[in-house]
Amino acid sequence: MVASAARHLRVDRSTVNRYIKESAYLRQIVKDERELVTDITELKLFDAIASGEAWAICFYLKTQGKDRGYVERHELTGRDGENIGVTFTFDRPNDND
User: Which of 27, 34, 82, 93 lies at a CB distance of 3.0 to 4.6 Å from 78, suitable for a disulfide?
Assistant: First the structure.
């Protein structure tokens, strides 16, 4: 929330960003806060799953259930379902290289 911090401190965003870049302490605070927001967001996702929200169930399975086969598959074909022609070209290294 760099913009909010900048407004609170009455400085430009670039000033806040510069201080964060230059301070290991501030970088750690930013990292910790992002982790907190991720934790809160995960809890909201789990609440939506527990409520039976289809989008949340689908999202979770697509991202965390891959080892159980919940993977979106994209099939590529040529025109009208035909095979795709693939040509590989290998350049031989020049003996002078």
Answer: 82
Other beta carbons less than 10 A from residue 78's beta carbon: 9
Would you tell me how many other CB atoms lie within 10 Å of the CB of residue 16?
Answer: 20
Question: What's the token pair of residue 87?
Answer: 């040509």
- Which pair of tokens denotes residue 68? 């159980």
Q: How many CA atoms does the CB half-sphere of 69 hold within 13 Å?
A: 0
Q: What b/e sequence results for 22-51 when a residue is b if at least 16 CB atoms lie within 10 Å of its CB, and e otherwise?
A: eeeeeeeeeeeeeeeeeeeeeeebeebbee
* Residue bearing tokens 């909010």: 4
Q: What are 16-33's pLDDT values in tens digits?
A: 999 999 999 999 999 999
DSSP 8-class letter at 11: S
Distance of CA 51 to the CA centre of its chain: 25
- From the CB of residue 11, how many other CB atoms can be counted at a distance below 10 Å? 13
pTM: 0.62
